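Internal ticket - ligand job 390, 2-acetamido-2-deoxy-beta-D-glucopyranose:
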Amino acid sequence: MNIQTVLIFIGLSFAYGQDRKITAKLNPGYNTYSTDITLVYVKCEGVSDTIHQIWDFTRHMPTVIFAVASVNSTLNVTWTDNAPKDLIMSEEPTYSFATAIDKIYEYDDLDDNGHIDPKFPQKPYPLDKIVWHLNESLLTDKEAMVHVYGMLNGRHGRREIINIKLDLIPFKDYAVDLPHLIHTANSTLFDISLVNLTTSKEYNASRYAIHLLLVSTDPETDTMHYTMRKSLDDEHTPGVFEIIEIKSPSLFEKGEGGYLQFRPVAYLQSTRGVASSTIARVSAFSRTSLPRYSTLKLFYSNLNTDLLVQDMFVSFGEAGDGYYKQHNYTAWSFTIGYGTPPIESFSFFVIMIISIGLGVPVVLALSGITYVLLRRYRHNNNRTRFTNED
Ligand SMILES: *[C@@H]1O[C@H](CO)[C@@H](O)[C@H](O)[C@H]1NC(C)=O
Ligand SMILES: *[C@@H]1O[C@H](CO)[C@@H](O)[C@H](O)[C@H]1NC(C)=O
Ligand SMILES: *[C@@H]1O[C@H](CO)[C@@H](O)[C@H](O)[C@H]1NC(C)=O
Ligand SMILES: *[C@@H]1O[C@H](CO)[C@@H](O)[C@H](O)[C@H]1NC(C)=O
Ligand SMILES: *[C@@H]1O[C@H](CO)[C@@H](O)[C@H](O)[C@H]1NC(C)=O
Ligand SMILES: *[C@@H]1O[C@H](CO)[C@@H](O)[C@H](O)[C@H]1NC(C)=O
Ligand SMILES: *[C@@H]1O[C@H](CO)[C@@H](O)[C@H](O)[C@H]1NC(C)=O
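stdout (structure tokens):
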């Protein structure tokens, strides 16, 4: 990269407070407009690299792919009738990480503890037939956002809806909605809600779980790492102190790679709050392979690299909550990112409170000490004077 580009970029960053320059396109290279075809390509140009993001719904499985390559790299999409035919990069990415939701599971939680357990009945609902309709989109150089929804196979003649919202902003900030996850120029917020799904008659303790695929250009025999840390306060997510991170081997071992970051919390009503929250749980990882006919397969079969493919469940609920049918609604968010996961910082408000909390006693103590010292000094002085006079 030449000096000029760096200067222009730094100029841009100062002007807009952006960490990356983003360019987002809906269905690039596809000429017909249809709300049933959604593939967003976001190019995120940084000072030292460019992250190419593909958000694909055309091949049914909601998919997010991150590919990191040099500053000037490009990615082009070619099309068959209504799905990508190929995703061509100008160079082999230095790193790539992806996630996709391939199935939703309904399970009969007879132990009533929220976990999806193979010892109890369960039914997978593959998402490979769902048509995703684009409901809202905002694609500017300040934000890239899409909201799509799909009907779960139109079972039962009832509107059973899965909503998915993806959001990218080119700087670090807290998400507007609870659990107020942090998104950065290197990550994208993924929010999913399961609305009015009909539970099976033969199950009396139905809950739903999400089945996620995780892919990274790491050795096939390596593994993703689950980590949980405690935050100092629950300022941003009331009542929740834990932060869960799923780290790719590269991130875990070398400090830079793909990750998912989230809070172990889900919401049971569209108006989110502490009262409508429940627990989100992550299962262990299993090894798997790329699904056939998927955008993941399309992208990764072009690359000449190691590939780690694993999957996991995220299930929702806790004992005594009346199962899914109690609210017929579950919403959960995570961020998918590259680099190192952001850590939450104290807000100005909290810093002020802490400063006041610590400051007042310190000031009081100091003034006390000063008073005593002053008195002593005066006293000594007086005594000296007396001595002198004596
Ligand atoms: C990127 O492109 C710019 C202008 O197009 C060029 O000046 C620069 O050398 C390129 N950087 C790299 C790393 O190839
Ligand atoms: C992508 O398309 C642009 C413009 O058509 C072209 O300049 C570029 O070389 C293409 N990149 C690749 C990797 O094919
Ligand atoms: C589409 O978005 C609008 C708000 O922009 C919302 O009122 C409506 O419920 C959404 N439709 C679905 C099916 O989510
Ligand atoms: C984003 O990634 C770049 C390099 O890829 C790194 O320099 C930067 O610190 C990262 N930013 C954040 C907010 O993680
Ligand atoms: C879900 O069902 C409830 C009650 O039947 C209804 O009020 C609500 O509008 C439905 N939600 C959607 C998104 O269709
Ligand atoms: C559900 O059905 C099983 C047997 O089929 C029974 O053991 C269990 O108590 C029932 N649970 C509830 C919450 O009704
Ligand atoms: C949820 O849907 C079921 C039908 O599947 C219905 O019986 C139940 O009353 C609904 N619950 C709420 C809170 O709307």
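Auto-summary: Residues 347-390 form one domain. The pocket of 2-acetamido-2-deoxy-beta-D-glucopyranose (ligand 7) is lined by residues 198-199, 325, 327-328 (CB under 6 Å).
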